Amino acid sequence: PPPAVSPSQAAADALDARLLSHGRLVAGDGGGDGAAVHRLVWGAHPTTGDRVDVVRLATPNGASAAVTTAGGRLLYLLEPGGGGANVTLTPPSLAALAADGHYLGAPVGRTANRVRGAVVRVGDVDHPLDANDGGHSLHGGRVGWSRRLWTVSAADVRVAGAGPHACAAVTLRLVSGDGEGGHPGGVSVALTYTLGPGGRLRIDAAAVNDGRAGSAVVNVTHHAYWVLHAGAPGGGAVSVLGDVALTTSAERMVETDAACAATGALVPPPAEAAAGGDGNGGGGDGGGREMRAWDV
Fold it and tell me: Which of 51, 187, 189, 229 could cross-link with 174 by S-S, CB 3.0 to 4.6 Å?
């Protein structure tokens, strides 16, 4: 059984309390029925010495989330109600985040997952990429977006609505230059975290080619680790593994080999998922493909 309070829960609770006590209110009123955004200098990056900030989003129902300019990462997501369960893995410190090799809470790019042979073709030109995973390029190479320092301006934090409709948002920005990690083309990236009604967290990523060096390849995703069954405050469980389902509208999926590198072949999803089943004889929602946690 999980501990009464997990290390991720303890780390999130400590950082949340620090943000509330020492963070600067940069949007909202910090009370009443509106959302609020606080910002805190977390410290100096252990490797680069750059200043690292944390931004806290909160809604009046007690939900909160924090993101950092170090890698644009999500640090925690606390459920509504005040003192709620943390539903993502949280590093215990800035030093631990800097040393993390598992992409905790990170946006990964410029290309997520593995690029076979660390080569990408644009038109009729092959571009060698930074090989950091057995001859393949993984998550943008050794210095992908999860390792970069992102920026947040005063205009990039905002709140809207009130009461059950209140939401708070922050946009982190990054410039990924032509040739970064071997990738062609330069792009400007915007990553927006929005905490809305019911404690729902939405993550939007957008990249725009700067047009100075031809075509650019971008395939970004988010690498949060969601806590499916762990200790919550009071010893309760956040959720039960069998209650978690992933639904996708894809009719085909990319085949991978034993090294988890894409082969290039498009294949049907698993038979149970393609039938809309839940692995237990149940049906899907009719709008896509459903895979239970034990399928993934």
Answer: 189
Quote the DSSP letter at residue 97: H
Global pTM? 0.85
Residue 194: φ, ψ to 5° = -125, 120
Q: What size, in residues, is the chain?
A: 296
Distance CA 115, CA 137 (A): 5
Distance between start and end Cα atoms, the chain: 22
> What is the distance between the alpha carbons of residues 86 and 231, in angstroms, rounded to a whole number?
9
Name the region of 228 (left: φ>0; alpha: ψ -120 to 50; beta: rest): alpha
The span from the CA of 226 to the CA of 174, in Å, is: 25
* Residue found under tokens 């985040």: 97
Q: How far apart are CA 247 and CA 10, in angstroms?
A: 31
- Span 60-95, pLDDT tens digits: 988 999 999 999 999 999 988 766 888 899 999 999
Report CA-CA distances (Å) from 46 to 39, 50, 95, 103, 142: 20, 8, 6, 17, 17
Express each pLDDT in 174-201 by its tens digit.
999 999 999 999 999 999 999 998 889 9
Tokens found for residue 184: 């062609």
β-bridge partners, 53: 41
How is residue 171 written in tokens?
């946009």
